[in-house]
Amino acid sequence: MRESAGGPDLEITNFRFKKESPHDGLGFQLIAHKDDPHRISFEVRASDWSPNPPTRSVYCDAAKHLTGELLKVYNKTYGTRLRLRIVSNDHHRFTMTKRTASLLDSFTVLANTSSLHPLDWRRFYALVREGRQEIPLGELRVALRKAGFSAETADYLSELYEHLWAFKHL
After folding, report:
1. Does pTM top 0.85 for this prediction?
2. What is the pLDDT of residues 119-128, one digit of tens each?
3. What are phi and psi of 61, to 5 degrees?
4. Long-range contacts made by residues 83-90, C-beta under 8 angstroms, separation at least 24?
5. I want to staple 154 with a disulfide (CB 3.0 to 4.6 A). Which of 12, 31, 44, 149 is the partner?
6. Nearest-CA neighbor of 58 among 70, 48, 69, 50?
């Protein structure tokens, strides 16, 4: 898949793990940025993690498991020494402001978690429109799961939030 419409020029390749796994729909993406051809980003994804949401340790173990054989074969074939490096984001920890927390609470506390009502959608859109701070995808997903949303709904709303936030800043 190639993406460049209004954003960075990316080449993305998706892989699905077909063998037995404790995580449903386990897979990963390799993401190459045209402006930095020597660096490839790697994202692990699953439709349902075990535990859900995954801990950092579970995520890292899945990443190592998925890339181990691929890197081994690639390195042997091309005579390279590529390695998976998992960068810690501890120094970039997200801290939610009071305003963002208030907007998120007004959505999650009153929302019908099984079927969103038009008023729920209005509060969700207010979270995007009135928010001054973008909530990272993973953070929002965790907050929605804690509020009682299913994994699928939390994923959907988190991705929708990310798209709406990007649209807001075009």
Report:
1. no
2. 999 999 999 9
3. -60, -40
4. 84/42, 86/60
5. 149
6. 50
The partner residues of 24 in beta bridges, in order of sequence, read 48
Question: In the numeric block, which tokens belong to residue 58?
Answer: 């579970």
**How many angstroms separate the CA atoms of 5 and 163, rounded?**
13
Cis amide bond preceding 54, omega within 30: no
Name residues whose C-beta falls within 8 Å of residue 23's C-beta, 6 or more positions apart in sequence.
46, 48, 49, 50, 54, 62
**For strand 36-45 and strand 27-33, is the pairing parallel, antiparallel, or unpaired?**
antiparallel
- Per-residue model confidence as pLDDT tens digits over 122-150: 999 999 999 989 998 888 998 999 999 99
Given CA atoms 9, 54, 136, 112 in this order, what sign does their dihedral have?
positive
Query: Which single residue is written with the structure tokens 């019908």?
Result: 112
More confident residue, 94 or 130: 130
